[in-house]
Write a structure and sequence with these properties.
The chain is of the alpha/beta class and 225 residues long. It has 2 domains: 80 residues, Winged helix-like DNA-binding domain superfamily/Winged helix DNA-binding domain (Arc Repressor Mutant, subunit A), CATH 1.10.10.10; 113 residues, Rossmann fold (3-Layer(aba) Sandwich), CATH 3.40.50. It has 9 helices and 9 strands. The two termini are 37 Å apart.
Amino acid sequence: MNAQTLSVDQKTMNQTGLPEAVNDRLSLYYPFLKDWETIGYKTVTCENIGSDLHLEPSRVMEDLESIGIISSPRIGYVLCNVIYELELFFGWNKVNQGIIVGAGSIGSALLGYGKFEQCGLKIVAAFDLDESKIGGCIHGKAVYPLEKLVEFVQLGDIDIGVVAVPATEAQIVADLLVEGGIRAIWNFSPVHLEVPESTIVQNQDLYCSLATLSKKLKASTESVP
């Protein structure tokens, strides 16, 4: 790998110690491998993964080697071993309990997403201020009043708090999560959260993603003669 490529890949490092781009690709390999396991395959190669995800096999090999997964000559990888190592790397071998604060459109959609547990997240409840939702269930998850949040987190051994409220309420929610002892926040609100250094925040900014998509679409349209 040349120095120029290295500098690009290492622009952003995360808690795993790997460049963000490598971390993102590794997370994409997992659902592909799980699908292959479901079909009944026992082994997989870099060529199989690369072909499906439109990546060079050498890139796939480098990514897997970065977390200690080495291929065997003529065989490739034992499928169950690669899946296990990825689950271990991302911490998905341990299911963390989580809650969602905000039972609106985004929160309700997240409550209905059934594959979080494959990635180590079990949503156990939701919280909201809307009295018409409190006391009910959304996708089988009970909705509690916001005033019960801190107590619920402290008593329920909750690891992850998902913030899906309007920007004006996001910091208040974050403060409550921190007060309850939440160690990680997945933030879907378009606002920067002020939290202690010991609290991990992952921002999922839908507005920025849409802006990037719109910009690419605009550039693509302008390039067409």
